[in-house]
Amino acid sequence: MTSETNSIKSHPKLHHQVTRGGQGMVVFRIIQQILISVRWIIMVNILAPQDFGLLGIGMLTLATLETFTQTGFRDALVQKKDDAKSYLNTAWTIGIIRAIFIYIIIFIAAPWIAVFFDSTFNFQPNDFPNESQKTENVARLLKTPQNPAAEFLKNNLAVDTQKSLSDYTPEIPAPKSLKQNLTNDFNRIIDQYSLSREAAFTEQLTSLRSQKLINQTPHNIIRINRLLIEECFPLAIKKRVIDRQTAIWVIKIMALGLFLGAASNIGTVYFIKNLHFKKHFFLQLAGSVVDVIIAITLALIYKSVWALVFGKLAGQSTRFILSYILHTYRPAFHLDMKKLKELWKFSKWILGLSILGFLFAQGDDIFVGKVLGVTALGLYQVAYKFVSLPASQITQIFANISFPAYAKIQDEIPRLKNAYAKILLITAFLTIPCCGIMFALTPEFVTLFLTEKWFDIIIPMQILSIFGAMKAIGASRGSLFKSMGRLDITTKIQTVRLFLLAAVIYPLTSKFGITGTALSIVLITAVIHPVDTYFAIKITKAKTWELLIPIFYPLIATFIMVFLVYALKLLCFQTPSFLSFFTLAITGILTYLGATLLLDKIFHFGITNIIREQRKLLRP
């Protein structure tokens, strides 16, 4: 292992090593990006939003417990300047103990977790999907009821609601006032009646799904009433009642992945520490390939949430096996309390930061799942996933590269400043236009590649695309703070971010649904960015303009690109088609590149020089 550490010293040009390693990561990330995108497009066309919501419940459960027991030892091993071999077994042993502890908690708590996400049944206006001629809507079905259950509900509507319904024309979307009136009446009905005793709902009671879910909690009348109304309007009301037994087993089985991650070879930490990025990313890519193949195959056969669950487990199993094939180190159970205390000095900040970061990053998911229901959670998570894929892939590349590189030059502030400015410029150059083109083409993307059941994610996706760009820029600063051992800065920023989220998420989500949730995330991130920038300037001792210029010019070029794409959509491509989608995408990309190069030629902000420099470094 010492030879691995010494190999770093044999390369005096750190930036050359980083660039060569980053080359492989970029190639692997592009492949992974294509695979993940194809997987998600196929899966959302096969599965329903509530399937992704059930998966989301399992992932949120694991993320919660993993975050609150985070050790941060891997980051501590990377951040250490000297050889970390003597610390590996202690870090690995603690990871195994932690995984066992978490699994016991999850196994016991799974039923209560399922109840937590299946305990709010009141109707909200956002439970009624946006109407179109191709989808059902409650107002149209109640105006001309085709079954006894719909007739029963119509007869029990308030007088004002019935009058509004009689004035409603099915050819146009229902007014917001009618939606609100229907919401109030449906809530009154499920609170006052026991619909399982009404003859009008006999057909709904005999369905296999209803019988299964009713038997899970026969004492909860409001839940049963909500379920029966959902069965009455299967395509016109978002499902909120979940299959608790399925949710419980999703949580328990997904938790098995904890052991696979904890028991993986701790020696692979040297792939990052020693800048062996190709090996690190091959390990990740192989798991993703297996995940995609298994998930798509099972989804085509069974069309259920289990395709997503077993796909993830298969990917984790692949990474576990390869970790021992790709690295010769063999961990053993050993606990050195002195080494543990040394690791804890750095990683205690990782724990605090992870908790705060989780509450912000996953707090919106938990809130949506609890307040709006599992279907809304599935919609929100899919919207976030599609928007974040390009930016997150690029961000992860530079996070993996920059953190160990910054750590090696943390005492050389001028070099650190220059390295950070370059990484910031490249990150902005790549991520901002990705998010911009997603913003411009989201309606066409959802229309062409997804199905009508996903139309509600169009506006949230556009809003979250703005967040994706800001998140990518913020992540570059996070690597800087972590490499300098200044996690206290990030912890304080995350604390403020969390308080802001708590203040705005409820009113915006209550009023606008998942669109309001997305808006709250964007607003908070916009407020926090100047604070991030201030601390980055302070640490690197840079002038303000030195860290704003790398963002400013890619942003201007992206605005030009988005403006042109919208103009072409308005003038030439008003009807979405695959030809128009790819034409607009290619035109947008070429416009961005042209605008960027022109701005660099005029203002000399440096992107052309960096591209030339990287090309030279990549030559054998």
Structural write-up:
- It is a single chain.
- The protein has helices spanning 2-9, 14-46, 49-68, 73-79, 88-116, 138-143, 148-155, 159-167, 176-192, 202-205, 208-216, 221-232, 244-254, 257-263, 269-273, 277-302, 306-326, 337-361, 363-371, 374-408, 413-449, 458-483, 487-512, 514-540, 544-571, 578-603, 607-617.
- By secondary structure, the chain is mainly alpha-helical.
- 45% of the residues are buried.
- Residues 1-12 have low confidence and may be disordered.
Q: What structural keywords apply?
A:
single chain; 620 residues; mainly alpha; 27 helices; 78% helix; 0% strand; disordered N terminus
Number of helices: 27
Mind summarizing the main beta sheet? none
**What is the general shape?**
globular
* Content-based structural category: mainly alpha
Secondary-structure element order, N to C: HHHHHHHHHHHHHHHHHHHHHHHHHHH
End-to-end distance, in Å? 27 Å
Calculate Rg over CA atoms.
Answer: 26 Å
In short:
This protein is mainly α. It contains 27 helices and no strands.
